[in-house]
Amino acid sequence: MEHLPMCAVRVMKGAPAAAAVCVGVGATLVMDASMFLASRLAPEVLATEKIDVNLIGRWVGGLGRGPRRDRDITGAPAIPGEVALGLATHYLTGMALTQVYFASLERLGRTPGPVKATAFGLATSTLPLLIMFPSMGYGFAGRHSGDARRLSSMMLLGHTAFGAGIGLCTLACQARGRARGAASRHSE
């Protein structure tokens, strides 16, 4: 039996949560890198101050006071630890969505693949457009933000990159698992 690393991803009954953690963190890093590069390479089209990790932290920190629907969150006062809270929320969400991807494939009897993962990532862009942006005071798809085109474009780009990251990290982990399996067979 081949030896698999903690992050080796195989869609099988009871796939380890460690797989979703490893791949989810990697995919979220791909998302962050793509959004950072895009905002630097095409700032007039993609750069916006309306999405940042501190604003995610401010949004999550304020959810206990009820959903924010009437005011733009950028005008709300900063809260202590909002950057750390934003980072934790962002990466935990990436891990959770990755687990949803693998669980969905398992339920459907399918195996992971880069195209399926990229399509899944694109589908997840609806979450900020329909849930997060309205509760941050930006309106549906950011239409009340004054920057709707950039917000929507960045979400589509970032979440598509997230999905591609799931696909690439899955392939990398599978290759690592095969390499370790081959190495352990040769050492026996």
Structural domain tally: 1
Number of strands: 0
Give the % helix.
Answer: 55-70%
Reported for the largest beta sheet, the result is: none
Uncertain residue segments: 1-14
Mean pLDDT rating: 82
Order of helices and strands: HHHHHHH
Helix count, per DSSP?
7
Distance between the termini: 12 Å
Can you walk through the features of this model?
Helix 1 (17-41) packs across helix 7 (148-187). The protein has one domain (17-41, 51-65, 72-182). The protein has 7 helices and no strands. Helix content is 68%, strand content 0%. The protein has helices at 17-41, 43-46, 53-62, 82-108, 114-124, 126-135, 148-187.
Which helices and strands appear, and what pairs or packs with what?
Elements: H1 17-41, H2 43-46, H3 53-62, H4 82-108, H5 114-124, H6 126-135, H7 148-187
Helix pairs in contact: 1-4, 1-7, 3-4, 5-7
